[in-house]
Design goal:
It contains 2 helices and no strands.
Length: about 45
């Protein structure tokens, strides 16, 4: 396994689940929902 493949495997096994958990945790907070809706309005006009 070359270094790039190893880095990708490490990311997929370790970092990705941590990031998914963090995103799920913040998505349910009202402040995050407000920020997300403002971001969409600002950049996509929705």
């Amino acid at each position: 396994m070359n270094p790039d493949q190893r880095a990708r495997e490490t990311f997929l096994r370790i970092i990705k689940p941590i990031l998914k958990a963090a995103v799920n945790r913040f998505q349910n907070k009202p402040a995050f929902k407000l920020m997300r809706s403002r971001f969409r309005t600002m950049y996509w006009g929705r």
